[in-house]
Amino acid sequence: MSRTILVYNRNTRRYERIREDVYDGTVAVPYSPDQYVGFKKYATERGYRNAVQKEYESKLDDIRSVEEAGDFEDGTIVLDWTKTNEGNQARATFDYRYTDPNGNLMYRRVTGPRTRGCGYDKESSAVSDVLDLSPEFRKSFYDQLDNGKDFSVIRRGKGYAPKFEGGIGMSAYRGDLPKAGYVLEDVAHNPKTDVYAIRRAKVKNMAKKAKSNSKVGWDKITRRRPY
Q1: Among 31, 50, 100, 121, who pairs with 70 as Cys (CB 3.0-4.6 Å)?
Q2: What is the rounded CA–CA span in Å between residue 61 and residue 53?
Q3: Best CA proximity match to 95, nearest among 136, 62, 54, 51
């Protein structure tokens, strides 16, 4: 029986396209004395190769954390605004629920860094920073990227694992989340706080959903359908 997405199977190397992008932008790059690894140049090829291998392994660890993450269920993003000498700055806190590989419903809170500077959309930047801290939420998008979908809210390219894009406005997130099976809802807004909820998108056509389920089948590990 064909499968479109495997869930919680650590023996399968998911996200091969993402892994290839990381490889092509790190280990596969030819040595040059002018080539940077991070913010440093290396006078010898041996030093360069050692550094780039460490960078490659670090990025693979990031991808593995998403591969082994649970399934995101729902959550709430709260943005706290503070006035500074650089203008109003935002910090986002993300409280969310997810189902772990054993089928248990779990809770987690992550808090992103406070924005700095001016001249860009700080709201979506704070949101992107905190979403990057949730491997469970990133997994929802990685699964779709691995199946060929693209998102305006995802920054991807050679040499790094895909991350959420900041400074692009919340409308971009409203438009892209349904592609990953979720919706972004406005909860509350005032000068000091913005609150958003992320929920699973409702499936309008239940017959279509049932047909999809029959093709995909149950996951043998979690006993859940991967949709």
Answers
A1: 100
A2: 12
A3: 136
- Do residues 184 and 202 make contact, with C-beta atoms less than 8 angstroms apart? no
What residues have CB less than 8 Å from 169, skipping those under 6 apart?
121, 123, 124
Contacts of 207 (CB under 8 A, 6+ apart): none
DSSP class per residue in 45-74 = HHHHHHHHHHHHHHHHHHHHHHHT--EEEE
Q: Please give the single-letter amino acid code of residue 25.
A: G
- What tokens were used for 62? 């990031």
In the structure encoding, which two tokens stand for residue 206, read together? 């239940």
pLDDT tens for 134-156 read 999 999 999 888 888 889 999 98
Looking at residue 86, the DSSP 8-state letter turns out to be T
Task: Return the structure tokens found at 109.
Answer: 């809170």
Model confidence over 91-126: pLDDT tens digits?
999 999 999 989 999 999 999 999 999 999 999 999
